[in-house]
Backbone:
């Protein structure tokens, strides 16, 4: 098939606007899957994606479409995730495409990721086709949404398509627009091979599968290829198309999206963003790659059952095969035992990793309070990087701290602007601008510390806007901040797992909050327990758990000592399962509840 | 490390379980049946058979018993001659010191003077009277078969005969406040017993009272109220000259129950009858609790012996492997288990436990145990004095938590220290 009949495009949108459902309808229309294979959001293949109804990884699939003009087209579709933590998945997908369908929910309107993803697609110079989805909904407001879209994109009302992915309305029009508006790929089939690795996955049976977009040339089984960044050469074992599974083909040609198997052992071998070229070629220009993924948020992961440490290490290793954003180093906590300090893209990423560990590796995990990566400048001018509260240098020697700031975009109905502004200002946000997408929809931009959104921000944003406000952010830069380490003590003994980094102005409030919550989670013991929060040596909040007053049983009837012993052994085992902080026993569940925030 | 000399005349003891009650009280989950006269006769025959069997086995031939305790159930339901046959059989079959403490548990409704006199004639010298309360509302709540007047009357009969007796009380009852408890307690003290046991009501799963509390029909007093009742108990008894020698037991000096103390100092004893427990030669074992099953096993056991288990090849082993052995289980107690027993038995006594005894049993857990006892002493829950470890008064009412805590400390020889990283 000549590249003239190829269309590479992706679907981008805010979370839940219906990308995966629209992809389902495309697959129906193109008869790509059998009735047996088909199900709702079929491309969301991970268990976790299916259960939560969200897309975590971008999914590529090839489809054959017979257009109204009677000609056959080969579509390569990439369904992308909508959540901000996974926006790197979107940016990679864009590199494999010439066009993007920008989907907007007809009842929700333009939201933060709509704008963020649109910006990325524009930067990647993609042709954008705006599509309003869910027009079947009673709350659909297609005309208002059109106005919002026109505010963002220079287009006419007629160019904005309207569909119901769920009911299959307007699907063919979208596919026709793809044929008509998305340019065919423009590479040179006769030039030497140039293929961009835009994703790679690890398959238990087949090893590393590199997802590629061929820009120039072609590739087939038996070719010897080289990766430009590493210089390592490989024999191509197999090439093919991405369907629900891998479908081997004779060759892949310029303009196509497909996969290459070449005996690569670990995902790092097939680095996303690298360019594949023929072994012998010289002087070939690398394709523009991607910014390396940098963990933004750190948290300690500890196995609930301390015996699971080794299993956790192995499981993280396996997860990392498919999750290039995950980074970790060993960490020890007096309270929680042995674990790992892990770097993540954001709070949802932490949650997903935790859940995958549970689901796929049967590991129960406690995650400590997340923190961002800090930079400390010491008195003597040396700079140190801090990934954990425990690593914070002695405050006496720190000249200044810097922490990452982000540019936040919040889109909200006008009536909640006041609430949102109050919330953001409370989180040290500095207003950068306000813009109205239409009479009713405001877009607020702020500069604020990343640390302020990883702690309970999203929920508050939602609750102060009755669920309407949405948020997107990108890293801005490191800036100076007045930070302190907040510690929690039980009867004077530090609970290292609860230490956290806080802004000086917030420390009191957070200390109070931690102390109050702990008070409700620690069972009474035979003696009184003082719970304190402090900065350095200074106590800023305290509370007490009063002593238990009664725990006594009657005699041992008729010399039945064995029964009594069994009862006490049970009680004893209960204590042994708790974590001992100095002299105080703290149930594992208390840490769990506190760190998972489930007690509220 | 040997036991303190003054513990030696506490045991060994013999416990006999008499599994009959006139009817089942609403809070009780003991092994007992109502049974008629014929059943009691058959039971006594079986018990006599068991006494002879154990004696014939010879495992206790070297022991001189210092206490006998008829418990239940309601031993006072037995006829006078039945009691005498049992006590006689014990003296015929085993060596029993002439001054042995011979106690019978009795309920007011069945302790008629004839029975009491028969018991005394047979060598009995101590009665533990299950009055439970002197508040008629409380007695109805407990579903007891007697009222306060009868309890007073029986106490009077005991006093007339100058028999040393103990009264049992229960506090922490649903609907009874501390004032009502104080009144009942004062009444009980006025009965003039030498000994008083008072237990906080424990709800046993499955008993009618447990159900009533679970469904909200009855409400137990709160923690502070129960504690206040305990404090009142300790204060009033000591004012009356009954000193607290164990968490729940009070006596005039010298009149403490030797039989029960023997349990708490981990002494040896032989248990006979269904569900009875024994401790001998480093083993603990228990008889089959079901009276029918126990009886069948006794009847089938002619000639064989049971009693002290021998580790290999002995009579006990043969017995316990036989299908109709009356022994439900046995276990060897040593090391950590022995240390645990020192904690949860020995510390119940006000005198406490010699630290060396406990430390030796705890082995490599001793250091951690020492640290933890030090901490709990600082908290005012334990006392360490002259080489003895004991519960402080403030620790008595949270004793189970302390025991479990010490047991846990002992098992983690290297406790996670909050400051260590
Ligand atoms: N009423 C209606 N609901 C729709 C339509 N399209 C999708 N939905 C529903 O919207 C929800 C989200 O759909 P998805 O397809 O999972 O959305 P998504 O954009 O892929 O979500 P993420 O991948 O998590 O960003 C699902 O419950 C769909 O059934 C539509 O046209 N009409
Ligand atoms: S008399 Fe004692 S043993 Fe019998 S049922 Fe009542 S409480 Fe239980
Ligand atoms: Mg999706």
Residues:
């Amino acid at each position: 098939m000549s590249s003239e009949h190829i269309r590479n495009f992706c679907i981008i949108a805010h979370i839940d606007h219906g990308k995966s459902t629209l992809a389902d309808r495309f697959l129906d229309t193109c008869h790509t899957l059998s009735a047996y294979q088909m199900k709702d959001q079929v491309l969301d293949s991970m268990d976790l994606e299916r259960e939560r109804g969200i897309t975590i990884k971008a999914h590529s699939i090839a489809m054959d479409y017979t257009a109204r003009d009677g000609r056959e087209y080969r579509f390569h579709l990439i369904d992308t995730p909508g959540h901000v933590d996974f926006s790197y998945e979107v940016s990679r997908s864009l590199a494999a495409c010439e066009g993007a369908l920008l989907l907007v929910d007809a009842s929700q309107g333009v939201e933060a990721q709509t704008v963020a993803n649109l910006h990325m697609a524009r930067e990647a110079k993609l042709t954008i086709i705006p599509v309003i989805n869910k027009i079947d909904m009673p709350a659909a407001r297609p005309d208002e949404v059109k106005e919002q879209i026109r505010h963002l994109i220079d287009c006419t009302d007629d160019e904005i398509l309207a569909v119901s992915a769920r009911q299959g309305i307007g699907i063919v029009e979208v596919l026709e627009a793809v044929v008509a508006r998305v340019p065919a790929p423009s590479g040179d089939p006769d030039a030497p091979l140039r293929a961009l690795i835009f994703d790679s996955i690890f398959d238990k049976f087949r090893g590393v599968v590199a997802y590629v977009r061929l820009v120039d040339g072609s590739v087939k089984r038996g070719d010897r290829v080289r990766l430009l960044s590493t210089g390592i050469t490989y024999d191509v074992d197999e090439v093919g198309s991405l369907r629900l599974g891998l479908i081997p083909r004779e060759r892949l040609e310029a303009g196509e999206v497909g996969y290459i198997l070449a005996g690569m052992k670990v995902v790092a071998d097939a680095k996303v963003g690298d360019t594949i070229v023929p072994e012998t070629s010289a002087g070939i220009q690398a394709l523009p790659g991607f910014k390396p993924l940098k963990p933004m948020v750190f948290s300690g992961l500890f196995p609930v059952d301390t015996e699971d440490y080794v299993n956790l290490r192995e499981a993280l290793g396996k997860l990392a095969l498919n999750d290039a954003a995950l980074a970790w180093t060993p960490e020890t906590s007096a309270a929680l035992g042995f674990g790992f300090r892990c770097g993540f893209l954001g709070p949802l990423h932490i949650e997903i990793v935790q859940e995958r560990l549970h689901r796929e590796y049967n590991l129960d995990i406690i995650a400590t309070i997340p923190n961002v990566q800090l930079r400390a400048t010491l008195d003597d001018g040396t700079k140190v990087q801090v990934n954990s509260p425990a690593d914070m240098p002695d405050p006496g020697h720190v000249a200044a701290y810097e922490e990452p700031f982000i540019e936040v975009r919040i889109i909200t109905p006008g009536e909640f602007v006041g609430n949102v502004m109050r919330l953001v200002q409370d989180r040290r946000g500095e207003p950068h601008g306000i813009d109205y997408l239409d009479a009713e929809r405001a877009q607020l931009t702020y500069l604020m510390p990343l640390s302020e959104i990883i702690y309970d921000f999203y929920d508050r944003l939602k609750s102060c806007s009755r669920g309407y406000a949405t948020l997107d952010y990108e890293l801005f830069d490191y800036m100076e901040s007045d930070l302190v380490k907040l510690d929690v003590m039980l009867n004077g003994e530090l609970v290292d797992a609860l230490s956290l980094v806080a802004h000086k102005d917030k420390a009191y409030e957070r200390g109070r909050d931690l102390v109050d919550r702990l008070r409700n989670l620690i069972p009474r013991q035979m003696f009184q327990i003082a719970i304190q929060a402090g900065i350095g040596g200074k106590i800023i909040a305290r509370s007490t758990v009063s002593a238990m007053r009664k725990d006594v049983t009657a005699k041992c009837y008729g010399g039945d000592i064995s029964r009594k012993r069994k009862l006490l052994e049970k009680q004893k085992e209960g204590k042994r399962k708790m974590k001992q902080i100095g002299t105080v026993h703290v149930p594992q569940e208390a840490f769990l509840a506190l760190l998972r925030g489930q007690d509220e | 490390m040997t036991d303190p000399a003054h513990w030696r005349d506490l045991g060994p003891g013999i416990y006999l379980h008499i599994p009959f009650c006139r009817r089942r009280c609403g809070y009780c989950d003991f092994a007992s049946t109502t049974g008629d006269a014929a059943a009691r006769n058959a039971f006594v025959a079986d018990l006599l058979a068991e006494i002879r069997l154990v004696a014939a086995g010879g495992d206790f031939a070297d022991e001189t018993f210092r206490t006998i305790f008829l418990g239940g159930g309601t031993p006072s339901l037995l006829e006078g001659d039945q009691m005498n046959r049992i006590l006689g059989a014990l003296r015929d079959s085993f060596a029993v010191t002439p001054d042995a403490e011979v106690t019978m548990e009795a309920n007011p409704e069945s302790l008629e003077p004839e029975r009491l006199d028969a018991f005394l004639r047979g060598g009995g010298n101590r009665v533990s009277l299950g009055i439970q309360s002197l508040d008629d509302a409380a007695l109805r709540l407990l579903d007891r078969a007697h009222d306060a007047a009868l309890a007073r009357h029986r106490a009077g009969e005991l006093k007339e005969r100058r028999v040393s007796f103990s009264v049992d009380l229960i506090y922490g009852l649903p609907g009874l406040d501390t004032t009502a408890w104080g009144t009942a307690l004062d009444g009980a003290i006025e009965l003039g017993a030498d000994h008083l046991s008072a237990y906080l009501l424990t709800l046993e799963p499955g008993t009618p009272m447990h159900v009533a509390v679970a469904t909200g029909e009855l409400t137990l007093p709160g923690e502070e109220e129960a504690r206040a009742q305990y404090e009142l108990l300790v204060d009033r008894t000591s004012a009356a000259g009954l000193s607290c020698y164990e968490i729940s037991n009070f006596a005039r000096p010298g009149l403490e129950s030797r039989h029960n103390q023997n349990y708490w100092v981990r002494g040896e004893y032989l248990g006979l009858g269904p569900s009875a427990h024994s401790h001998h030669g480093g083993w603990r074992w228990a008889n089959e609790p079901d009276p029918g099953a126990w009886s069948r096993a006794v009847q089938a056991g002619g000639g064989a012996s049971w009693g002290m288990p021998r580790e290999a090849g002995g009579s006990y082993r043969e017995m316990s492997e036989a299908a109709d052995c009356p022994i439900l289980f046995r276990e060897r107690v040593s090391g950590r288990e022995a240390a645990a027993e020192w904690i949860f038995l020995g510390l119940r006594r006000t005198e406490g436990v010699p630290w060396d005894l406990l430390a030796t049993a705890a082995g490599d857990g001793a250091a951690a145990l020492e640290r933890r006892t030090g901490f709990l002493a600082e908290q005012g829950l334990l006392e360490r004095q002259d080489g003895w470890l004991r519960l402080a008064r403030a620790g008595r009412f949270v004793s189970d938590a302390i025991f479990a805590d010490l047991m846990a400390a002992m098992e983690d020889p290297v406790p996670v220290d909050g400051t260590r990283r």
Remarks:
- DSSP finds 16 helices and 15 strands in chain B.
- Chain B touches chain A through 59 residues (CB under 8 Å).
- Chain B has two domains: 5-264, 335-411.
